[in-house]
Amino acid sequence: MSSSTEVQNQDPKEETNQAVKEEEKVGEKEKKKEEKKEETKESWKDCMYNPRTGEFMGRTARSWGQILLFYLVFYAFLAGMFCLTMWVMLQTLDENIPRYQDRVASPGLVIRPHTAEISFNRSEPTNYNQYIQQLQDLLQNYNDSVQERNDLCLVGEYTEQDDEPIKKVCQFKRSTLRQCSGLSDTSFGFAEGKPCILIKMNRVIGLKPQGDPYINCTAKRDSLLQIKYFPSEGRLDKMFFPYYGKKAHPEYVQPLVAVQLLLSEEDFSMEHTVECKVEGSDLLNNDERDKFLGRVTFRVKVLQ
């Protein structure tokens, strides 16, 4: 009995000692954590600015000055090299003519009204007013009063002026389009169901088409479709070539060909597919990879 009583009397003391030891361990851990935090703060402060060595972010003021001076000189040298090479390259370029233009050997054709499908009711002007407006807008620069300021050029001959600083512009008067000029018939034939289509060739600098280029249009159907051309035979006179670029030749006007489709009553309410090509020259017009190279196709449908 006495021995068991002694064990029971000693247990609370041992438990107290263990608790004290655990508290001491916890205290030591907390102290170490605080010391580590202090060391971290000190090391971070020293990293930004070390008062003992006078270093900022690991470098002295002299070291920072040297490295900044190095990069300043280095990038100034690179910028100078870039400017020099650009200047040398620009000295080899002509400001009026692209260095490489072999990818655009032949021009394409475009039409006005600028749409691939022309459909309207000739009895309702609101159906075709949009087409008339497009034609009027294009022909503003071709008004006779405007074109009289330009030069009379030699028909059938190239207007070559390579050495001229200011390039002259050949006249193309609107009145040469006659029934399709919009002067005598402001509806351009749409009111009669005989619409006029204006065709022009894209500008290509330095292009001098060989032969005698003209526009030829055909209808893709069995029966023949009567077509009238203005100027006569749809000629694109060589006097309008070559073109010297937008900067050297700012007032240049492209020659136009007006095509009037003389539809009869039998042709009304039918869709007609018309293909126009540049013929009579060395210009390409049959490249299957480019449907607009030297040709253009459009559809016309007139309702009564």
TrEMBL record:
UniProt biased composition (Polar residues): 1-10
Membrane topology type: Single-pass type II membrane protein
GO molecular function per UniProt: ATPase activator activity
PROSITE patterns cross-referenced by the UniProt entry: ATPASE_NA_K_BETA_2 (PS00391)
Keywords: Cell membrane, Disulfide bond, Glycoprotein, Ion transport, Membrane, Potassium, Potassium transport, Signal-anchor, Sodium, Sodium transport, Sodium/potassium transport, Transmembrane, Transmembrane helix, Transport
Signal peptide feature range: none
Compositionally biased tracts (Basic and acidic residues): 11-43
TM spans (from-to): 67-90
Superkingdom classification of source: Eukaryota
Record region (Disordered): 1-43
GO biological process: intracellular potassium ion homeostasis; intracellular sodium ion homeostasis; potassium ion import across plasma membrane; sodium ion export across plasma membrane
Protein name as catalogued: Sodium/potassium-transporting ATPase subunit beta
An example Gene Ontology CC term for this record: sodium:potassium-exchanging ATPase complex
Source organism of this protein record: Cottoperca gobio (Frogmouth)
Described function: This is the non-catalytic component of the active enzyme, which catalyzes the hydrolysis of ATP coupled with the exchange of Na(+) and K(+) ions across the plasma membrane. The exact function of the beta-3 subunit is not known.
Localisation: Cell membrane; Membrane
